[in-house]
Automatic annotation (TrEMBL):
Molecular function per GO: 3'-5' exonuclease activity; DNA-directed DNA polymerase activity
Keywords of the record: Nucleotidyltransferase, Transferase
InterPro entries documented for this protein: DNA_pol3_alpha_NTPase_dom, DNA_pol3_alpha_thumb_dom, DnaE2/DnaE/PolC
Keyword Repeat: no
Pfam family, any one: DNA_pol3_alpha
GO biological process, one term: DNA replication
EC number annotated for this UniProt entry: 2.7.7.7
Enzyme class at the top of the EC tree: transferase
Descriptive protein name: DNA polymerase III subunit alpha
Limits of the Bacterial DNA polymerase III alpha subunit NTPase domain: 1-176
C-alpha cells in the first residue's frame, strides 16, 4: 500500500490511518507491533467517560443515601438527550413531583439535587481504553506524554486522541471486525467441504 494515499495537501490535521483486521487476530497484530517497535513505543489510547445528567443524579442521590429503588425510578424519568436537568424538571411534572417527595420536610432539597447534579454533569467519571486506536512512536512515549499501564498490562497514553497530534503522535486505528473473521471461517468451511480454495 502506498503511504501517500494517507496524505492530502489540503488536510490541516495529521493523517488518519485505519486498518480493518479479523477480530480474533487483532492481538496478534498488536503483539507484532510491540515486538517490532518496542514495548515502550506502542501504546493504547485512553478514553475518558463523562457524567451525563442521568448518571450524575444517580451519584448525587447515592451520596444522600436515597433508596436505590427510588434512584432507579427517578433515573428512568430522565431521557438521554441534550436538555439540562433543570429543563427536564420544568417540563416533566412527574419528575418534578418525585424530586419534591425525596425530602418533604426540606423545601430546598429538590433545588439542592438539581444544582449539584448540574454542577457535576460533564465531569470526567472514569477512564477506559480506545477500542481500536494505538500510537506508535519513534522514541519511548514516556519522553513525550504521561502514560500508565492498563488492566491488560499494555502501556496506555494518559492523553486522549484529540490531543495526541500536538505532541507529534499519530493515532492509528486497528479495528477488529467480526465480519472478517466470519468470512475467513466461511472460506475454511468451503475448502474443507469442497476442496475449493477461494482466491480473492
Amino acid at each position: 500500500m502506498i503511504f501517500e494515499r494517507f496524505l492530502n495537501p489540503k488536510r490541516i490535521s495529521m493523517p488518519d490511518i485505519d486498518i480493518d483486521v479479523q477480530d480474533d487476530k487483532r492481538m496478534e497484530i498488536i503483539n507484532y507491533l510491540i515486538n517490532k517497535y518496542g514495548y515502550e513505543r506502542v501504546n493504547n489510547i485512553v478514553t475518558f467517560s463523562t457524567l451525563g445528567k442521568k448518571s450524575a443524579i444517580r451519584d448525587i442521590l447515592r451520596a444522600y443515601n436515597i433508596n436505590p429503588i427510588k434512584i432507579n425510578q427517578i433515573s428512568k424519568l430522565i431521557p438521554s438527550n441534550e436538555d439540562t436537568l433543570i429543563e427536564e424538571v420544568n417540563k416533566n411534572l412527574t419528575l418534578n413531583k418525585e424530586l419534591e417527595q425525596l425530602n418533604p420536610h426540606d423545601s430546598t432539597f429538590k433545588n439542592k439535587i438539581i444544582n449539584q447534579t448540574t454542577r457535576i454533569s460533564g465531569f470526567y467519571r472514569q477512564i477506559g481504553t480506545h477500542a481500536a486506536g494505538i500510537v506508535i512512536a519513534k522514541n519511548p512515549t514516556i519522553e513525550l506524554i504521561p502514560i500508565s499501564k492498563n488492566p491488560d498490562n499494555f502501556l496506555q497514553t494518559q492523553i486522549s486522541m484529540e490531543y495526541l497530534e500536538y505532541f507529534g503522535l499519530i493515532k492509528m486505528d486497528i479495528l477488529g471486525l467480526k465480519t472478517l473473521t466470519t468470512i475467513k471461517e466461511i472460506e475454511a468451511h468451503i475448502k474443507k467441504n469442497t476442496q475449493q480454495i477461494i482466491d480473492w
